[in-house]
Amino acid sequence: MRRPQPRSRGPDAMVVEVGHYALVLALALSLVLTFIPAWGAHTRDSALMGVARPAAFAMLGFAALAFLALTIAYVDSDFSVLNVVQNSHSSKPLAYKISGVWSNHEGSMLLWVTILALFAGLVAWRGAHMPQRLLAYVLSVQGAIAAAFFLFILLTSNPFARVMPAPFEGEGLNPILQDPGLAIHPPLLYLGYVGFSVAFSFAVGALLEGRIDAVWARFVRPWTLLAWAFLTLGIAMGSYWAYYELGWGGWWFWDPVENASLMPWLAGTALIHSIVVMEKRDALKVWTILLSILAFSLSLIGTFLVRSGVLTSVHSFASDPTRGVFILGILIFFIGGGLTLFAWRAPVLRQGGLFAPISREGALVLNNLFLSAACAAVFIGTLYPLGLEALTGGKISVGAPFFEATFLPLTVPLLLLVPVGQSLAWKRGDLLGVAQRLAAAFALALAGAIVVFAVTRRGPVAAPLGIGLGLWLILGSASEIFNRSHRAGASLAVVLRRAAGLPRSAWGTALAHAGLGVTVIGIAATAWGVERLATMKAGESLDLGPYQVTLEAVVPRNGPDYRETAALLAIRDGDRLVGRVEPGKRTFTGRSMPTSEAGLLTVGLGQVYASVAEIEAGGSVGVRLYWKPWVLFIWLGAVVMAAGGVLSLSDRRARVGAPVRRAAPAAVPAE
Amino acid sequence: MTLWIVLALMTGAAVLAVLWPLGRAQSQQPSAETATDAAFYKAQLAEIERDAERGLIEPSEAETAKVEAARRLLASARRGEAAGPLSATAGRRRAAAVVALVGLPLVSLTIYLTLGNPAIPDMPLQARNDRAAPDMSMGQALARIEEHLAKNPNDGRGQEVVGPVYMSMGRFADAERAFAAAIRILGDSPHRWESLGEAQVAQADGIVTANARTSFDKALALDAKLVKARYYRALAAEQDGDKAKALSLYSELAAEAPAGAPIKARLDDKVAELGGKPPQPSGEAAQAIAGMAAGDRMTAIRGMVASLDARLAEKGDDVEGWLRLVRSYMVLGEPEKARDAFARGRAALASDQTGRDRLEALGRELKIEGS
Amino acid sequence: MTRKQRRLTLIGSALAVLAVAAGLILYNLTKTITFFKTPTELAEEGFKPGMRLRIGGLVKEGTLQRGPNQTVHFEVTDTNRSVPVTYQGLLPDLFREGQGVVADGALQPSGEFKADSVLAKHDEKYMPKEVAEALKQQGMWQHTGDKAKEAAPNAAPAAAKPGA
User: Fold this and answer.
1) How many angstroms separate the CA of residue B153 from the nearest CA in chain A?
2) C61 and chain B: CB distance < 8 Å anywhere?
3) Which single residue of A106, A452, A459, B366 could bond A159 by disulfide (Cβ 3.0 to 4.6 Å)?
4) Which parts of the chain span the membrane according to its record (chain B) (predicted)?
5) pLDDT at res. A194
């Protein structure tokens, strides 16, 4: 299993060099894509604009080929490739050889730009019915971003650099990176980050074309939703990985790396809401364009702050000046260029529809205000220490207390308002009517909170309040669906039929908001968590929340590429065995430092979490144990949110824009 | 040669991707741009009507919404007329075609010839294993032994072989397990017990634990002359605070050690530290130790040092490696080789001032000439 | 409401939210940031007990003591001064004597630093940046090599393993 399979490739196969050349060709094509369609759009020359789509497909093809070639080099442990030597090892399991491709700087950049090319290809594929000039500009911008990164990769971070004579073994066997969560986390996160490039390209394209309206919004919305859904999943995956791998039992640490992904998410969340206003009411144009630029700018900053190491140390940025300066140049060019173009062209945009402060639009403006403020708070908290250090040399750290004290007051009011905003009518809302429609949901949520409080009298007060808030979000979404399908006197069958007939975007919205409620409940329930630190001998038991934990034995054992001392723990509820967990300390082949491997037992939606602190002489172990009721709600909610986003983007209306002769017949049978 | 054909085909495909759309007959109507808008607003109107029919919105709201959408549809049509028709001139098309035909291959080949290594074929490890088995590195050899042992955990010989390798890599816990397994499978032997004890000491960061002492006692029960076991027994006494016993054990060892051997100096230091007088070695005992040092174990160690040497010859910027190599040759009693390694290391670290300083400091410490 | 009033209401509420946000950020920044200090700075600048600080340095060799219930005592040193630290809880995998460490917590009246979180080197290439810089400033920077590498030649002849 660990041995690479013999291949049929001949001894003089040149996959690596073919991949290298494919990368160069992708660069050349991205340059063509940058200039020719934009030229065509500028001169209204449809022949030149016609180059955009095939060039985008070809660029995707060659980028994918380069990525595939590097993957093959990893799978075959081709140690004539420097990148493979530095980041792989022949004894790694196959799956981690593959994930090793993007576990390092060069490979992850290649993945990043391949995904960028993928999005360009997807836009080209779906763009057959888009206005031709807009498509040409959008793909040109996408091509320009790709060109910058292809150049960056080829000139400063080339994954295809060779080494001669080739060593016989690689150096990369970091056991902490050998984890399924971490293996799929970067691709998901990048799909999210890079997905916002489409919104950016649309915004810049629209500014260049000087035309932004509801049609634009409808074309850009599915892409933004897609990026947002991936980013949501990526963040959730990262959070879950940190939760079980780092052994600290928490799920969010306000670490700069985490914040770097949270910022584009907040901006992206604001964006998917403001785009709706633009699509329906032709309002908030300038703001939506600005958000599109900001969401991708924050994605860029997120990727590169993490990748350049500037978050770890301002000085590590300077340790490789070429890369640092190149990255800085790219950031300044695209963010600065985007914003300058915005400042220059935004005034020419026509003002859109009017609306009263109390209306769906008004509520969405408030949503955007809170989200942007929260995003700014995270931004300042994350970058302030860097700025201060660069300016004065003073060293400070802004930790969880700052973010909790700032982020919560900015998000809780927003969460309280979600069901209200959702039920307000467009243009001019009726608060009294909304209050009547939501009364039942509010009463139920309040009752839920009170019941929870009564049951857990001695527990923390925040938990029932949080549960109430979560219920309010879920029930508010349910009530919105109900109110839109219910009419006085209608039978259940009619209500159901009408509910099924609601547009998918309505269901998507409700689902995403309910998912948010689920996450809020999970977060609130962490207040009931139990933590125990103890030194146990075999046979000893201790109480952990509702369970009793017994250390049955401490045993050594072998894994595929590590040795482990595991503590076998049995979890009992009275006499009933609930399950076993086997946390341990692992020593990987070729390493002297052991790593902790946590043990997790899922009971319903809660988890028992155990990690080994210290293996002591005489068979006793120091263990840290947690009981975390309902903790899975946190990530489950995120998955539900992402599902809501995907449902919303699959709305058939998102595909309108096809010529009438196609759209019209399709609309009839759908009724 | 095949590579160049493949690269040429790839270039051709890329050029074609640009040329093909340029060459296509354009059937774009001037109104095409506004057609999308019209479709969009008409769909929006239809949607409002459906919503109104189903009672999702009030009729009055539906009416205003329809008016608004209709207004935007008109505005879009006006804009379309104002913008004028799309154009396509042969001149621009020709320019773009030249870019694709000439510029694209030129840029690609220039960059690739600068950065690429068209002469180096793929070297998947599997293919190389078959071709170059003799040069197997330590890591690879270890991986093979481990794989073998995972399948045949009762191969005592294998356990015995892998133990010292683990020791050399600092994986003392694994070494202890391997030696213990070797004893379990192959039975007692003074050297196995001695090695086990050594692994136990190393794992305890140099403390001779009770377990380690038991191992050394067992080793000495089988062969009372074992030098290492006796050394550790002395060390244990010293660590216990039993100075008198430690002194007598050390003195006994020091008396046997040959003059000039590194072990001799260390033992003398120990004796001096504990307040004793370094005794003169007796000829016989020196012979005995010299004989022992040439055992199997030393062969293995020499092999390891040689592989380190080979690695440094390839990749010379490893300061720690050079320090280790010089020290190892001195310890192995090969001052010429140490001197040679020292000189090579100094040359290899020419660009690394701090590294060279460290190496030279070691040279002075070990009294290597030329430092 | 007229067009103008609507716009004013919107702008007014936007400004209100932004003002609240700005106020929150500024207030919390002044209240919750922690300063990073080396043991020398800690000793020389004189800090009131109870103030939240982050200290960093190396775990001084020979000072690590484990107590009951995973309490640990150790000293953090920048090779110039050192400060005693107590901590209860799970130590990171890479926590070792002689390795870089960063601790968050507060000084006790006794002069001891009570940590509520301890971070060690994140991986073998990474050292908490504050530690690396503080050590660099003192000219003490040295790459702490892997234990395995150091041990290799020492394992060769018997007597080269000094033990004590």
Assistant:
1) 11
2) no
3) A106
4) none
5) 94
**Which residue in A has a C-alpha nearest to residue B26's C-alpha?**
A47
Per-window interface: B 76-95 vs C, CB < 8 A:
none
| Residue C159: pLDDT band with limits 50, 70, 90 | very low
Q: What is the dihedral sign for C-alpha A112, A113, A116, A121?
A: negative
Kindly list the residues from chain A whose CB atom is less than 8 angstroms away from the CB atom of residue C120: none
Peptide bond into A165 cis (omega under 30): yes
Q: How much is the average pLDDT of B47-64?
A: 74
B362 touches chain C (CB under 8 A): no
pTM for this entry: 0.75
- The last residue of one of the domains, among B241, B261, B293, is B293
The CATH classification of domain C35-144, taken from the options 2.40.50.140, 1.20.1600.10, 2.60.40.10, 2.30.30.240: 2.40.50.140
C87 is in an annotated binding site: no
Q: Mean pLDDT of all residues in chain B?
A: 77
Residue holding tokens 């600080």? C53
pLDDT at A250: 79
The pLDDT of residue B83 is: 62
Strand (E) or helix (H) holding B161: helix B156-169
The rounded mean pLDDT for chain A is: 86
- Torsion-angle region of residue B241: left (phi > 0), alpha (psi -120 to 50) or beta? left
Candidate from A377, A399, A401 with C-beta closest to C25: A377
Domain positions in chain C are 1-32, 35-144
How far, in Å, CA of A158 to CA of A110, rounded? 9
8 Å CB contact of A39 and B68 = no
* Helix, strand, coil share of chain C (percent; to 5): 35, 25, 35
Binding partners of C (≥3 Cβ pairs within 8 A): A, B
What's the CATH number where B342 sits? 1.25.40
Instruction: Look at the block and give the residue holding tokens 């409401």.
Output: C1
Contact call for B18 and A39, based on CB within 8 A: no
ipTM over 0.90? The verdict is no
Residue B341 structural domain: 296-365
Report which residue type is found at B190.
Answer: P
What's the angle, vertex CA A378, arms to CA C95 and CA A269, rounded to 5? 120
Contact A29 B13 (CB under 8 A): no
Which among C99, C141, C147, C149 is the top mutation candidate for probing chain B, defined by the most B β-carbons within 10 Å of its own β-carbon? C149
| Digit-coded pLDDT (tens) for A294-348 | 999 999 988 877 766 565 544 444 456 677 788 888 999 999 999 999 999 888 7
Q: What pLDDT digit, counting tens, does each position of B178-211 carry?
A: 888 888 888 888 888 988 888 888 877 777 888 8
For range A527-534, the mean pLDDT: 86
**Residue A384, Cβ neighbours under 10 Å: how many?**
16
